[in-house]
Design a protein that fits this description.
- With 327 residues, the chain is α/β, with parallel strands linked by helices.
- The protein has 14 helices and 12 strands.
- Strands 2-1-3-4 form a 4-stranded parallel beta sheet, sandwiched between helices. Strands 6-5-7-8 form a 4-stranded parallel beta sheet, sandwiched between helices. A 4-stranded parallel beta sheet has the order 10-9-11-12, sandwiched between helices.
- Helix 7 links the parallel strand 5 (147-150) and strand 6 (163-165).
- Helix 1 crosses helix 2, helix 2 (34-54) packs parallel to helix 14 and helix 4 runs parallel beside helix 5.
- The radius of gyration is 20 Å and the shape is globular.
- The structure holds 1,3-dihydroxyacetonephosphate and iron/sulfur cluster.
- Iron/sulfur cluster is lined by residues 99, 124-126, 152, 212-214, 241, 276, 299, 301-302.
Length: 327
């Protein structure tokens, strides 16, 4: 959504902007009415020009709205892919279109590059549920037990932890520690992700009590209601930050990238993604044969990122994400 950032006079839908963005509009025409698109396209054009001038790259998480995801994102995907690709980039500037912990991850992996964030207030309820001191206290309480922290944590929490995981690889990491002889591990901060991993492994997991404000809202009853309304044709996919009762009733659980891959591969007639709303919008663009059913929740943090804020951040090269050298 366009926010209230004042629109500079130069940002007009000129024939040049139309020429550069019409092919993109052809892909996104189901998502945006033409007159609204004409207010977005000048920003897309301007941001892409600035990226070339400044040798900048935009990392866009799967929860970005389609104008950002398809219009200006150079590297798109789940937290794991954004982190992996951030390590490979040759760009001088990285603009993180996602939330603050993702920008910190990009900075940790690229200490010499300038990492920018369109809105520093774009946080995450999981990252805010635990501090570095909390991890130090856990280690005192459970000496010798490794702490795995989900990528949805601050750099300070990661620094105090032994291993960092994402929703794509959480189970693999717990099992790897199990093979190294750890019969118990500590997992922070997502209670539901930890419970969902615990259901698939013999390794005992000590669980921190954080939740995602988006995924905690889905219930087993939601899944039953969807099936009652849409019948046997509907495939229900859920993010592992959802409560275990949701995962138990869903057809598939996985990270945002794994859900996308499932849809691309299986092309179900109808699908519901129990996750953030923009994910379904983005998946729908490239999978027109799949009817995406719109039961979703908005992440208030992800939705703080908008085209005007991205343009301002790239133009002014601020705010910059910096991490204390000790951390
Ligand atoms: P993914 O790693 O699955 O992209 O999840 C990130 C996130 O914030 C989910 O809420
Ligand atoms: Fe954090 Fe949940 Fe938003 Fe992801 S969807 S950024 S976990 S609050």
């Amino acid at each position: 959504m366009l926010d209230m950032v004042e629109k500079p006079a130069a940002l007009r839908f000129t024939p040049e902007v139309a020429k550069a963005t019409d092919a993109l509009y052809a892909r996104l025409s189901k998502q945006y009415k033409r007159d609204y698109w004409e207010t977005l396209a000048p920003y897309i054009y301007e941001i892409n020009s600035l990226k070339r001038q400044k040798n900048a790259v935009i990392l866009a998480h799967n929860y970005m709205t389609p104008d950002i995801f398809f219009g200006v994102g150079d590297i798109v995907g789940d937290s794991l892919k954004l982190a992996q690709e951030a390590m490979k980039t040759e760009a001088d500037i990285i603009v993180q279109c996602g939330v603050h912990f993702m920008a910190e991850t990009a900075k940790i992996l690229n200490p010499s590059k300038k990492v920018l964030m369109p809105d520093m207030k774009a946080g995450c309820s999981l990252a805010e549920s635990i501090t570095g001191e909390d991890v130090r206290n856990l280690k005192k309480q459970y000496p010798g037990i490794p702490v795995i922290s989900y990528v949805n944590t601050s750099a300070e929490v990661k620094a105090e932890s032994d291993v960092c995981c994402t929703s794509s690889n959480a189970l693999k990491i717990v099992e790897a520690l199990g093979r190294e002889g750890h019969d118990t591990v500590i997992m922070t901060p997502d209670k539901f992700l930890s419970q969902n991993v615990a259901a698939q492994t013999k390794v005992k997991i000590i669980i921190w009590d954080g939740t995602c404000v988006v995924h905690e809202r889905f219930t087993g009853q939601d899944v039953r209601d969807i099936r009652a309304r849409h019948g046997a044709d509907v495939v229900v996919l859920a993010h592992p930050e959802c409560p275990p009762e949701v995962i138990a009733e869903a057809d598939f659980a996985g990270s945002t990238a794994q859900m996308n891959d499932y849809i691309v591969k299986h092309q179900p007639k109808k699908a519901v993604l129990l996750t953030e709303c923009s994910m379904s919008d983005n998946v729908a663009v490239d999978n027109p044969a799949v009817e995406m059913i719109g039961t979703c929740q908005l992440c208030p943090y992800m939705k703080m990122i908008s085209l005007p804020k991205i343009l301002a951040c790239l133009r002014d090269e601020k705010p910059e994400v910096l991490i204390d050298a000790d951390v």
